[in-house]
C-alpha cells in the first residue's frame, strides 16, 4: 500500500511540474490554469488525507475530471500544432532539434501537445494505482 501511495504522489508531482512548464496560447490559458489549480488541490488533499479509502475515491473522481479537462486542452493544442505546421506535423518532426527551434511557436505547440499526452498517461497510472488500493 505504501508503495502505491508513494507512486501516486510521485506521479501527481510530475504532473504539476509538466503543467508549470507549459506555454499555451491566450485562449487556452484559462483552461490550463483551472487544471493546474485542480491538480494542486487534489495533490495537497491526497498528501494530508492519503491513507484513507474516502481520499482514494475522491482522488479517483478528481483524476477523472482532470483527464476530461486535459483531453479538451490536448485537442486545442493539437489543432494549433496542426495549423502552425500547415497539417505537416510529420515534416516538422523530421527536422533536427536545432531547425525546429527556429520556429518557436510551432515548437512550443509541439511540446504542449506532447505534454498533454504525458499528463494523460500519468493520470492513467494514478488511476491504476488507486484501483489497487480500493
TrEMBL record:
It comes from the Bacteria. This is Uncharacterized protein. It comes from Alkalihalobacillus alcalophilus ATCC 27647 = CGMCC 1.3604.
